[in-house]
Amino acid sequence: MSGSYYVPATSKWPVLGSLAIGVMMVGIGMVLVYDRGSLIMVAGLVAVVAVMALWFRDVVRESRSGLYDSQMDRSFRWGMGWFIFSEVMFFAAFFGALFYIRTFAIPWLGGEGEKGISALLWPEFTAHWPLLNPPDPSVSGPAQVFSPWHLPLVNTLILISSSITLTVAHEALRAGYRRTCRNWLAGTVLLGLCFIVIQGVEYYEAYAHYGITLDAGIYGATFFILTGFHGLHVIVGTIILAVMLVRIIRDHFTREEHFGFEASCWYWHFVDVVWIGLFLFVYVF
């Protein structure tokens, strides 16, 4: 393949993937607006997962067949880089919304700032974050909020540890120690599963004992939007790392050629950094 550029064959996966995402988003919209359409949402999600699995299967087969060269490697790297950048912007929007609410909207409703006249809407409202008593009396705020030094701190330590174990696995692969890479990568997958389980326990506690729900005012909404999307990324990242573990066991990677594994490391480290931001600005401050 030296001096050549591999042009993939015509693929049906981009079109099918777009249709699957469209069906899933229609279902999500119906659930949020009309409280029905869950079957459409689930069908779309299953279709998305199926398309991703089959599409990545083809990519793995092409890579294993020796069809990719250095130009394709650069293309994959640029593609993954832009994908992570889009994810950064995705979470930046939600962090920006949280910043706007806490820094501007709530103080305005409390009578502070250049738009403090907004306090005329609910004159008895006291601006304070976390917002346990929303200004509109028809909305019930949470009974209490989580202490950052219990489950959130445990999950923070888990994710930081997972970044360390994943880095050790990556360095072991680069040094040619495949068994060491396999063991440390398995540990990373296990830590990811532990994070997901603990997050599930926290969500149960939020609904059952803390009164933190999607209907609990702006605090409940921002809490679940930020932690929920991050949790989804952890689930996806754990699945990706599990697939990489299978590929390591099957000896798919070499010391020099292992971008699939390297890309999964980029993604996981990004997810870890986002969690640190969540821990600080959702739980601590």
UniProtKB/TrEMBL annotation:
Its main location: membrane. Residues 1-285 form the Heme-copper oxidase subunit III family profile domain. Keywords: Membrane, Translocase, Transmembrane, Transmembrane helix. It is found in: Cell membrane; Membrane. It is a multi-pass membrane protein. Signal peptide: none annotated. It is an enzyme of class 7 (translocase). Its EC number is 7.1.1.9. The chain crosses the membrane at residues 12-33, 39-57, 78-101, 181-201, 221-246, 266-284. It comes from the Bacteria. It holds the Pfam family COX3. InterPro entries: Cyt_c/ubiquinol_Oxase_su3, Cyt_c_oxase_su3_dom, Cyt_c_oxidase-like_su3, Cyt_c_oxidase_su3-like_sf, Cyt_c_oxidase_su3_a-hlx. Belongs to the cytochrome c oxidase subunit 3 family. This is cytochrome-c oxidase.
